[in-house]
Amino acid sequence: MEVNVRDDKQLVEIWLTNAEKKDPALREGLKDIYEKWKQKKYMVAVFESGEKDLYQGTLDLLAYNKRRCAELEVKREKKKRTAALER
């Protein structure tokens, strides 16, 4: 387990390996960490190691975001044209 405290953002990052994320005792111990940092008004973010290919997952996410941005841009343009025609 790796814990990074980011005071500038009032954030605590907890990074768990595959073995750690499956350990019930460790998961139960996280509750104490949550409570400690909650009292200091910090947000606790837990990141768990994945099981899929990170490279392919990143490519898929980037491709989706590129497609989604293009779709939203087309919608904005259509909305803009419709508003211009209604005037």
Concise overview:
The protein is of the alpha+beta class and 87 residues long.
Q: Could you list some keywords that capture this structure?
A:
single chain; 87 residues; alpha+beta; 2 domains; three-stranded mixed sheet; 3 helices; 3 strands; elongated
Question: What can you see in these coordinates?
Answer:
With 87 residues, the chain is α+β, with helices and mostly antiparallel strands. The protein has two domains: 1-51, no CATH class; 52-87. It contains three helices and three strands; from the N terminus they run E-E-H-H-E-H. The protein has helices spanning 18-21, 24-39, 54-86; strands spanning 2-6, 11-16, 43-48. It has a three-stranded mixed sheet. Strand 1 and strand 2 form a beta hairpin. It is elongated.
- What is the element string, with H for helices and E for strands? EEHHEH
**Largest beta sheet: strand ordering:** 1-2-3
Helicity, as a percent range? 55-70%
What's the pLDDT, averaged over the residues? Answer: 93
Strand share of the residues?
A: 15-25%
Q: How many helical elements?
A: 3
Structural class computed from helices and strand pairing = alpha+beta
Q: Over all CA atoms, what is the radius of gyration?
A: 21 Å
For this entry, what is the oligomeric state of its chains?
A: single chain
Query: What is the total tally of β strands?
Result: 3
What general outline do the C-alpha atoms trace?
Answer: elongated
Indicate the low-confidence ranges by residue numbers.
none
* Biggest pleated-sheet summary: 3 strands, mixed
